[in-house]
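[Automated response] Your request has been received and processed.

Submitted sequence:
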Amino acid sequence: MLEALQYDFIQNALLAGILVSLAVGIIGSLVVVNKITFLAGGMAHSSYGGIGLAIFLGLPILFGATVFAVITAIIIATITLKNKGRIDSIIGIMWAFGMAIGIIFVDMTPGYNVDLMSYLFGSIIAVSHEDIIYLAILDVFIIGLVLFFYKQILAVSYDSEFASLRGINIKFFYTLILILAALCVVAAIKVVGLILVIALLTIPTYLAEMFVKKLSSMMILSSILATFFTLIGLMISYFYDISSGASIIIVGVFTLLFVKLLGKK
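Generated structure:
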């Protein structure tokens, strides 16, 4: 693997993996603690509409996915706050609508023949310098907001009623958490793709929960675990010429199973 580091695409892949892992560790913890895994999955698939629209308009694909994902997050937050009993139906509709819009715009784009499977299952090897800059900006934005509003996010995540009594704007911070989750989903598209992004968000946090209970500690440990999964998965992908996204998730799943078996013994 050391000789491979001389190649730019390997260097970009490693940087992208580390940057995404930082975001995944932080936001994955919020997703699991707030029990919004299904919501995050809906936003992940809805963002495909932004990919299709960006391709049609000739815009940067990650930018299109970001705008679409954030708009979807705001819509989902607004609806689910008042209709929590119908969350599954709402997410199903947004999920299908986003995918359908994306497919239609791609079909309407003349001469477009780029492999869209890379956006569904990830292609970390194809990360460019522009993608690295974009991921770094997203990381700074996500980490900055979480640090600035950490106490409020902590209160809303664990006891929303108590947070409301303390004068914290529940609607605002619930929406903020969903927007951050949407941004994280977009950041992970290039690494594991839309189909596998939920696994990368939840597996490191699920493991971290076995060892720590404090939210901040969970975020740090989740980021470290996500980085480990990503780097090992990338090595396996390089040596055996298989999908990087699938390799990363397989490493995560086997690590989880190994830890669970050790725990039982």
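Summary generated for your ticket: The CA atoms of residues 10 and 257 lie 29 Å apart. The domain at 3-258 is CATH 1.10.3470.10 (ABC transporter involved in vitamin B12 uptake, BtuC).
If you did not submit this request, please reply to this message.
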